[in-house]
Amino acid sequence: MDGPPILLPFCTRCLRLLSVVLVARVLAAAGCAPECNCSQFLTNCTGRQLRHFPAAIPLSTRQLILADNNISSLPALDLNYLGGLLHLDFRSNSLAEIPPSSLLNLQVLVYLDLSHNQLREITHLTFRYLTNIIVLKASRNKELSFIDSRAFSANHKLQEIDISGNGLTFIDAAMLEALPHLRSVRLSGNPWTCNCNTQILTSWMKLNRRIIPDAANVTCTFPGPLQGVLVVEAADKLFSLCRSKRQLKLREVLYFCLIGPGLFSASIILNLTFSLLMAHFNRFKKKELKRYRKLRRAISFKYSKRSNVITQEITAKANTNMSVCLGTECNQ
User: Among residues 16, 160, 298, 300, which is most buried (max CB within 10 A)?
Assistant: First the structure.
Protein backbone atom coordinates (compact mmCIF):
# COMPACT_ATOMS: atom_id res chain seq x y z
CA MET A 1 0.00 0.00 0.00
CA ASP A 2 2.97 2.34 0.51
CA GLY A 3 4.36 1.64 -2.97
CA PRO A 4 2.54 4.27 -5.12
CA PRO A 5 3.09 7.26 -2.75
CA ILE A 6 6.81 6.47 -2.68
CA LEU A 7 7.16 5.98 -6.45
CA LEU A 8 5.15 9.09 -7.37
CA PRO A 9 7.73 11.68 -6.22
CA PHE A 10 10.48 9.70 -7.88
CA CYS A 11 8.66 9.61 -11.24
CA THR A 12 7.86 13.31 -10.93
CA ARG A 13 11.51 14.12 -10.39
CA CYS A 14 12.47 11.99 -13.43
CA LEU A 15 9.99 13.83 -15.63
CA ARG A 16 11.24 17.21 -14.39
CA LEU A 17 14.83 16.19 -15.05
CA LEU A 18 13.95 14.97 -18.54
CA SER A 19 12.13 18.20 -19.34
CA VAL A 20 15.14 20.24 -18.15
CA VAL A 21 17.47 18.18 -20.34
CA LEU A 22 15.22 18.61 -23.37
CA VAL A 23 14.90 22.36 -22.84
CA ALA A 24 18.66 22.64 -22.44
CA ARG A 25 19.09 20.64 -25.62
CA VAL A 26 16.79 22.86 -27.57
CA LEU A 27 18.43 26.01 -26.25
CA ALA A 28 21.86 24.62 -27.10
CA ALA A 29 20.64 23.73 -30.58
CA ALA A 30 19.53 27.29 -31.09
CA GLY A 31 23.17 28.38 -31.22
CA CYS A 32 26.02 27.32 -33.46
CA ALA A 33 28.73 24.81 -32.56
CA PRO A 34 32.17 26.51 -32.23
CA GLU A 35 33.68 24.09 -34.76
CA CYS A 36 31.11 25.05 -37.43
CA ASN A 37 30.22 28.11 -39.49
CA CYS A 38 26.55 28.97 -39.43
CA SER A 39 24.43 31.27 -41.54
CA GLN A 40 20.66 31.58 -41.74
CA PHE A 41 19.98 28.14 -43.23
CA LEU A 42 23.48 26.69 -43.70
CA THR A 43 25.69 24.96 -41.13
CA ASN A 44 29.13 24.08 -42.49
CA CYS A 45 31.47 21.89 -40.41
CA THR A 46 33.78 20.76 -43.23
CA GLY A 47 37.29 19.52 -42.45
CA ARG A 48 37.30 20.15 -38.69
CA GLN A 49 38.58 16.68 -37.76
CA LEU A 50 35.40 15.99 -35.83
CA ARG A 51 35.07 12.55 -34.23
CA HIS A 52 31.50 13.05 -33.04
CA PHE A 53 28.43 14.76 -34.29
CA PRO A 54 28.45 18.47 -33.26
CA ALA A 55 26.58 19.14 -30.03
CA ALA A 56 24.81 22.31 -31.20
CA ILE A 57 23.22 22.67 -34.64
CA PRO A 58 20.74 25.55 -35.21
CA LEU A 59 17.18 24.29 -35.60
CA SER A 60 16.76 26.54 -38.64
CA THR A 61 19.41 24.59 -40.56
CA ARG A 62 18.27 23.41 -43.97
CA GLN A 63 21.71 22.49 -45.35
CA LEU A 64 24.17 20.64 -43.10
CA ILE A 65 27.69 19.88 -44.34
CA LEU A 66 29.87 17.56 -42.25
CA ALA A 67 32.30 16.47 -44.98
CA ASP A 68 35.97 15.57 -44.48
CA ASN A 69 35.81 14.62 -40.81
CA ASN A 70 36.26 11.37 -38.90
CA ILE A 71 32.75 10.79 -37.56
CA SER A 72 32.16 7.04 -37.18
CA SER A 73 28.50 6.97 -36.15
CA LEU A 74 25.32 8.95 -36.53
CA PRO A 75 23.57 10.06 -33.33
CA ALA A 76 20.25 8.50 -32.43
CA LEU A 77 18.47 11.80 -31.67
CA ASP A 78 20.49 14.83 -32.77
CA LEU A 79 19.57 14.64 -36.44
CA ASN A 80 15.93 14.11 -35.61
CA TYR A 81 15.78 17.60 -34.05
CA LEU A 82 16.43 18.97 -37.54
CA GLY A 83 13.03 18.10 -38.95
CA GLY A 84 13.32 20.74 -41.71
CA LEU A 85 16.70 19.54 -43.04
CA LEU A 86 16.79 19.38 -46.85
CA HIS A 87 20.48 18.77 -47.62
CA LEU A 88 22.86 16.50 -45.67
CA ASP A 89 26.48 16.10 -46.82
CA PHE A 90 28.26 13.38 -44.85
CA ARG A 91 30.97 12.43 -47.36
CA SER A 92 34.51 11.45 -46.39
CA ASN A 93 33.87 10.22 -42.87
CA SER A 94 34.15 6.81 -41.18
CA LEU A 95 30.53 5.64 -41.11
CA ALA A 96 30.19 1.87 -41.11
CA GLU A 97 26.40 1.75 -40.81
CA ILE A 98 23.35 3.97 -40.87
CA PRO A 99 20.89 3.24 -38.02
CA PRO A 100 17.35 3.80 -39.38
CA SER A 101 16.38 5.59 -36.16
CA SER A 102 18.92 8.35 -36.82
CA LEU A 103 17.04 9.38 -40.01
CA LEU A 104 13.57 8.85 -38.58
CA ASN A 105 12.46 12.52 -38.65
CA LEU A 106 14.20 13.61 -41.88
CA GLN A 107 11.11 13.18 -43.99
CA VAL A 108 11.70 16.31 -46.08
CA LEU A 109 15.34 15.53 -46.87
CA VAL A 110 15.95 15.62 -50.63
CA TYR A 111 19.76 15.33 -50.85
CA LEU A 112 21.99 12.83 -49.01
CA ASP A 113 25.69 12.25 -49.67
CA LEU A 114 27.34 9.28 -47.93
CA SER A 115 30.27 8.90 -50.33
CA HIS A 116 33.77 7.95 -49.17
CA ASN A 117 32.75 6.18 -45.99
CA GLN A 118 33.00 2.59 -44.77
CA LEU A 119 29.47 1.37 -45.31
CA ARG A 120 29.15 -2.42 -45.63
CA GLU A 121 25.50 -2.82 -46.60
CA ILE A 122 22.29 -0.99 -47.34
CA THR A 123 19.26 -2.78 -45.91
CA HIS A 124 15.56 -2.31 -46.54
CA LEU A 125 15.39 -0.14 -43.39
CA THR A 126 18.34 2.19 -44.04
CA PHE A 127 16.43 4.82 -46.07
CA ARG A 128 12.90 3.75 -45.19
CA TYR A 129 11.87 7.10 -43.70
CA LEU A 130 13.41 9.31 -46.41
CA THR A 131 10.23 9.41 -48.44
CA ASN A 132 11.16 12.63 -50.29
CA ILE A 133 14.77 11.85 -51.13
CA ILE A 134 15.69 12.83 -54.70
CA VAL A 135 19.49 12.56 -54.82
CA LEU A 136 21.36 9.74 -53.07
CA LYS A 137 25.12 9.35 -53.25
CA ALA A 138 26.81 6.31 -51.71
CA SER A 139 29.92 5.96 -53.85
CA ARG A 140 33.46 5.00 -52.84
CA ASN A 141 32.47 2.74 -49.97
CA LYS A 142 34.92 -0.03 -50.77
CA GLU A 143 33.33 -2.46 -48.32
CA LEU A 144 29.79 -1.92 -49.60
CA SER A 145 28.98 -5.30 -51.18
CA PHE A 146 25.24 -5.68 -50.53
CA ILE A 147 22.17 -3.60 -51.34
CA ASP A 148 18.88 -5.16 -50.37
CA SER A 149 16.37 -5.56 -53.19
CA ARG A 150 13.90 -3.49 -51.08
CA ALA A 151 16.40 -0.77 -50.20
CA PHE A 152 14.58 1.92 -52.22
CA SER A 153 11.03 0.59 -51.87
CA ALA A 154 9.94 3.72 -49.94
CA ASN A 155 11.95 6.21 -52.02
CA HIS A 156 9.71 6.60 -55.07
CA LYS A 157 10.91 10.16 -55.75
CA LEU A 158 14.53 9.14 -56.30
CA GLN A 159 15.98 10.68 -59.47
CA GLU A 160 19.75 10.32 -59.04
CA ILE A 161 21.67 7.43 -57.51
CA ASP A 162 25.44 7.11 -57.33
CA ILE A 163 26.71 3.70 -56.16
CA SER A 164 29.95 3.72 -58.15
CA GLY A 165 33.30 2.66 -56.77
CA ASN A 166 31.95 0.13 -54.27
CA GLY A 167 32.36 -3.63 -53.86
CA LEU A 168 29.09 -4.59 -55.53
CA THR A 169 29.00 -7.71 -57.69
CA PHE A 170 25.23 -7.75 -58.15
CA ILE A 171 22.10 -5.71 -57.49
CA ASP A 172 18.49 -6.50 -58.25
CA ALA A 173 17.46 -4.77 -61.49
CA ALA A 174 13.82 -4.80 -60.34
CA MET A 175 14.86 -2.44 -57.52
CA LEU A 176 15.83 0.19 -60.12
CA GLU A 177 12.91 -0.54 -62.43
CA ALA A 178 10.52 0.25 -59.58
CA LEU A 179 11.73 3.89 -59.43
CA PRO A 180 9.46 5.82 -61.81
CA HIS A 181 11.46 9.09 -61.77
CA LEU A 182 14.98 7.65 -62.01
CA ARG A 183 17.02 9.56 -64.57
CA SER A 184 20.62 8.91 -63.52
CA VAL A 185 22.40 5.97 -61.89
CA ARG A 186 26.18 5.61 -61.73
CA LEU A 187 27.49 2.04 -61.55
CA SER A 188 31.16 2.09 -62.60
CA GLY A 189 34.03 0.92 -60.42
CA ASN A 190 32.24 -2.15 -59.05
CA PRO A 191 33.43 -5.75 -59.60
CA TRP A 192 30.29 -6.80 -61.48
CA THR A 193 29.61 -10.48 -62.11
CA CYS A 194 28.43 -11.24 -65.65
CA ASN A 195 26.84 -14.67 -65.92
CA CYS A 196 23.43 -16.22 -66.47
CA ASN A 197 22.41 -15.42 -62.89
CA THR A 198 22.95 -11.70 -63.52
CA GLN A 199 21.63 -11.65 -67.09
CA ILE A 200 18.56 -9.62 -66.10
CA LEU A 201 20.80 -6.92 -64.60
CA THR A 202 23.15 -6.78 -67.61
CA SER A 203 20.15 -6.63 -69.96
CA TRP A 204 18.68 -3.80 -67.89
CA MET A 205 21.96 -1.87 -68.12
CA LYS A 206 21.95 -2.29 -71.89
CA LEU A 207 18.33 -1.20 -72.31
CA ASN A 208 18.76 1.78 -69.93
CA ARG A 209 22.19 2.90 -71.03
CA ARG A 210 20.88 6.45 -71.56
CA ILE A 211 20.42 6.94 -67.78
CA ILE A 212 23.86 5.48 -66.92
CA PRO A 213 26.30 8.38 -67.42
CA ASP A 214 29.35 6.18 -66.79
CA ALA A 215 28.16 3.23 -68.91
CA ALA A 216 31.45 3.31 -70.87
CA ASN A 217 33.27 2.39 -67.65
CA VAL A 218 30.92 -0.26 -66.30
CA THR A 219 32.85 -3.50 -66.90
CA CYS A 220 32.65 -7.14 -65.89
CA THR A 221 35.10 -8.57 -63.37
CA PHE A 222 33.79 -12.12 -63.08
CA PRO A 223 34.09 -14.63 -64.68
CA GLY A 224 37.64 -14.51 -66.03
CA PRO A 225 36.81 -14.74 -69.78
CA LEU A 226 34.63 -11.62 -69.54
CA GLN A 227 36.96 -9.60 -67.30
CA GLY A 228 37.28 -6.04 -68.61
CA VAL A 229 34.40 -6.42 -71.08
CA LEU A 230 31.77 -3.69 -70.99
CA VAL A 231 28.61 -4.92 -69.32
CA VAL A 232 26.45 -3.60 -72.17
CA GLU A 233 28.55 -5.67 -74.61
CA ALA A 234 28.55 -8.73 -72.38
CA ALA A 235 24.76 -8.65 -72.37
CA ASP A 236 24.65 -9.86 -76.00
CA LYS A 237 27.14 -12.64 -75.33
CA LEU A 238 25.24 -13.73 -72.25
CA PHE A 239 21.96 -13.74 -74.17
CA SER A 240 23.17 -16.38 -76.66
CA LEU A 241 25.17 -18.30 -74.06
CA CYS A 242 22.36 -18.45 -71.53
CA ARG A 243 19.83 -19.32 -74.22
CA SER A 244 21.88 -22.36 -75.22
CA LYS A 245 22.18 -23.29 -71.56
CA ARG A 246 18.43 -22.93 -71.14
CA GLN A 247 17.91 -25.20 -74.15
CA LEU A 248 20.31 -27.70 -72.65
CA LYS A 249 18.45 -27.52 -69.36
CA LEU A 250 15.19 -28.01 -71.28
CA ARG A 251 16.63 -31.16 -72.82
CA GLU A 252 17.68 -32.34 -69.41
CA VAL A 253 14.17 -31.67 -68.14
CA LEU A 254 12.71 -33.61 -71.07
CA TYR A 255 15.15 -36.39 -70.39
CA PHE A 256 14.18 -36.61 -66.76
CA CYS A 257 10.47 -36.18 -67.55
CA LEU A 258 10.29 -38.65 -70.44
CA ILE A 259 13.34 -40.91 -70.67
CA GLY A 260 13.89 -41.01 -66.94
CA PRO A 261 10.43 -42.37 -66.10
CA GLY A 262 10.72 -44.81 -69.04
CA LEU A 263 13.96 -46.20 -67.69
CA PHE A 264 12.47 -46.28 -64.23
CA SER A 265 9.43 -48.20 -65.49
CA ALA A 266 11.65 -50.59 -67.45
CA SER A 267 13.74 -51.24 -64.36
CA ILE A 268 10.57 -51.94 -62.36
CA ILE A 269 9.34 -54.38 -65.03
CA LEU A 270 12.71 -56.13 -65.16
CA ASN A 271 12.81 -56.38 -61.39
CA LEU A 272 9.27 -57.74 -61.34
CA THR A 273 10.06 -60.28 -64.07
CA PHE A 274 13.20 -61.39 -62.30
CA SER A 275 11.27 -61.71 -59.04
CA LEU A 276 8.62 -63.86 -60.73
CA LEU A 277 11.27 -66.08 -62.33
CA MET A 278 13.02 -66.47 -59.01
CA ALA A 279 9.72 -67.33 -57.31
CA HIS A 280 8.94 -69.90 -60.04
CA PHE A 281 12.44 -71.34 -59.77
CA ASN A 282 12.17 -71.59 -55.99
CA ARG A 283 8.79 -73.33 -56.32
CA PHE A 284 10.22 -75.77 -58.91
CA LYS A 285 13.24 -76.35 -56.73
CA LYS A 286 11.03 -77.11 -53.73
CA LYS A 287 9.03 -79.61 -55.79
CA GLU A 288 12.17 -81.34 -57.04
CA LEU A 289 13.58 -81.42 -53.55
CA LYS A 290 10.35 -82.94 -52.27
CA ARG A 291 10.42 -85.61 -54.98
CA TYR A 292 14.08 -86.31 -54.26
CA ARG A 293 13.41 -86.78 -50.56
CA LYS A 294 10.46 -89.05 -51.35
CA LEU A 295 12.56 -91.19 -53.67
CA ARG A 296 15.36 -91.30 -51.16
CA ARG A 297 13.02 -92.50 -48.45
CA ALA A 298 11.63 -95.16 -50.79
CA ILE A 299 15.10 -96.40 -51.71
CA SER A 300 16.20 -96.37 -48.12
CA PHE A 301 13.12 -98.35 -47.10
CA LYS A 302 13.64 -100.86 -49.94
CA TYR A 303 17.24 -101.52 -49.15
CA SER A 304 16.56 -101.66 -45.43
CA LYS A 305 14.30 -104.69 -46.14
CA ARG A 306 16.61 -106.21 -48.81
CA SER A 307 19.23 -107.28 -46.30
CA ASN A 308 16.66 -109.28 -44.34
CA VAL A 309 15.37 -110.94 -47.51
CA ILE A 310 18.84 -111.87 -48.66
CA THR A 311 19.64 -113.30 -45.22
CA GLN A 312 16.45 -115.33 -45.26
CA GLU A 313 17.15 -116.64 -48.79
CA ILE A 314 20.69 -117.62 -47.89
CA THR A 315 19.49 -119.35 -44.75
CA ALA A 316 16.79 -121.20 -46.64
CA LYS A 317 19.19 -122.24 -49.37
CA ALA A 318 21.72 -123.43 -46.81
CA ASN A 319 19.09 -125.43 -45.04
CA THR A 320 17.99 -126.99 -48.33
CA ASN A 321 21.51 -127.92 -49.31
CA MET A 322 22.12 -129.40 -45.89
CA SER A 323 19.01 -131.48 -46.13
CA VAL A 324 20.00 -132.76 -49.56
CA CYS A 325 23.48 -133.50 -48.39
CA LEU A 326 22.32 -135.34 -45.35
CA GLY A 327 19.89 -137.38 -47.42
CA THR A 328 22.64 -138.43 -49.85
CA GLU A 329 24.94 -139.48 -47.11
CA CYS A 330 22.22 -141.45 -45.59
CA ASN A 331 21.64 -143.24 -48.93
CA GLN A 332 25.31 -144.14 -49.23
Answer: 160
